[in-house]
């Protein structure tokens, strides 16, 4: 199951799977990325939730698709003219391809942000620098704390009559005072936090990060596979096997043995964690029921 | 041998520090104290007696700046000769404000924080954290966000994170003043278990001596920077009560206040009010039907989460009821609300500016403002003093209805008496005072009518004396 993986594994895997298609210019790879990215969503959320997001993604897709032909006027097949400028089929398809890519990468990143909880982000940074990890953790603590405070601060000051008659000028003046008051409050309180840190030995010795996750062999396997895939596909991409030309006319790359192999490898790799997730999640329960 | 030995300690705050009123006088005078290993010692005394200062001087990293004479020997060594590592490992201090002492966003990380600073190995850290989680029964919250914990849980997590570093001396600055009785008891029983298991030396500065006296081996009563008495709790308590006599209910005059109860007009009436926070959550206030009278002080009891704060938010208009009506007798009543966190009312950087903000100047200050240092920051006041400042600000607004959430929080009985006379003045002027509190003695002393909030409803208001007489659990016996 994905949440059981080490954060470094999750990070490298998701980045490899989403970034490789992003650096290619091939609608097929982009489509594969979108499909496998959607399948990944099912590992942590249900159909109802995904359906809720569909209209947003369709809108997102349309906006990006249409953005291109309105601003780029290359391409030989002119569909119509807008304000005297060409609106070409090639530009439209190029826009659609970009939209496909951005949506696909977006879907992968939604899953990434679900699996990279703040604990995991912290752990990732902790391995790089223990100080950075402390600061991130401090910020993660402070932001919700402060935003809650300022909300109720505003309410209580309003009751004390700070906002006056609610006219624009009064409101601006009041917001200024609220901000100054909040600043004083936060400075005073951050002194206590600083004292609490010093009192507990912050800066006394070289800091070490406490880690709550450990590497398993499966983590190492996934990371190695990610690197191999990145190297292999990177090489294939670099050789131009997947390069689609849009202007002046569309030229799709010839399918070759190598490109078919590459696509197959990508499909398998981008589904590997999803499949593993479902097998672990459901097969385990089957075993329970049978026994 | 004495574990902690303080010889003729004198301390004066740095005169350049404008935040302190006592800059020109000694905050601590001729302090001599001996504490043996494994003792639990309580420091008590009125607000500003120097107990917090004494605690902070025992923790070098955060000791206040100023003139210090005399010496402090810790475990046979001069305190100032300890290395920074020894200091942070061997002496743990829990200060007053729980919320701000939490550094990280996850409970497990908070527990690990001190250990990370000491540079322990991963396996040592794992071991200590596991031990502390098991001992303080933190398993269910070990992965939670620290921001999502209740006040009592935060306190316990902080205590645990200090103890994970296995200190030799534990200093606690008013650990239970801000806690409700339920959490206070949990905290005290955790301390008791800890002491029985490890024999750690503990020094507690606290107002709520009823909680700490039973577990203390020694009580040190302080007043005006001096130690008046340092003895067994039953002897020291006697001295303490002389210094801070308990607050009493004023006997009712012949006119018989309680009789006219039925004819006093209501200030606000709630008619079949329902309220919940989100669509799917259960009702917090359920079919509440009650009125609050003018010129009366109402006390509302009830456990945490009974909906007292929600009720206040409804009356004050911060929230709107989903069903039912809230009817005020005045057309546009002025409602003032002193929340549990009084700092929400502060907006200036000095006490003087704070008072000027609601139109108070030196000519019309209430008497008790003299107790506050006008040039200090409102945030530097003690808990009880903050309540007084909030009260002064609010009284300048001449409210018709005054809502107070835990008004006696952090107050000693001297400050409580000031609050008592202010409340009396308010009710005599026809103000409707509604307060929620856990403090039965205080409520008995100041309130006219009492009720319990439970399952979203209030039991009918009863006159205070009758309430405390007829109730079996809510009584002062």
What is the number of independent domains of chain B? Answer: 2
Radius of gyration of chain A: 26 Å
Kindly report how far apart the N and C termini of chain B lie: 43 Å
Task: Count the domains of chain A.
Answer: 2
Q: What is the count of β-strands of chain A?
A: 2
Roughly what fraction of the amino acids of chain B lie in strands?
Answer: 15-25%
Query: For the largest beta sheet of chain A, what order do the strands appear in spatially?
Result: 1-2
Please state the structural category of chain B. alpha/beta
Approximate strand percentage of chain A: under 5%
Please trace the helix and strand order of chain A, writing H or E for each element: HHHEEHHHHHH
The CATH topology of the largest domain in chain B is: Rossmann fold
Q: Any idea what the CATH architecture of the largest domain in chain B is?
A: 3-Layer(aba) Sandwich
Please tell me the overall pLDDT of chain B.
89
The average pLDDT value of chain A, as a whole number, equals: 88
Uncertain residue ranges of chain B: 254-258
- What profile does the largest beta sheet of chain B have? 7 strands, mixed
The oligomerization state is heterodimer
What does this structure look like?
- The complex is a heterodimer of chains A (291) and B (477).
- Chain A is built from nine helices and two strands, in the order H-H-H-E-E-H-H-H-H-H-H.
- Chain A has 291 residues and is mainly alpha-helical.
- Chain A folds into two domains: 2-116 and 215-290, no CATH class; 138-199, no CATH class.
- In chain A, strands 1-2 form a two-stranded antiparallel sheet.
- The longest helix of chain A is centred in the C-terminal third of the chain and has 34 residues, at 257-290.
- Chain B is globular, with a radius of gyration of 24 Å.
- In chain B, the strands form four sheets. In chain B, strands 13, 15, 16, 17, 18, 19 and 20 form a seven-stranded mixed sheet that branches.
- Chain B contains 15 helices and 20 strands.
- Chains A and B meet through helix 5, helix 6 and helix 7 of A and helix 2, helix 3, helix 4, helix 5 and strand 15 of B.
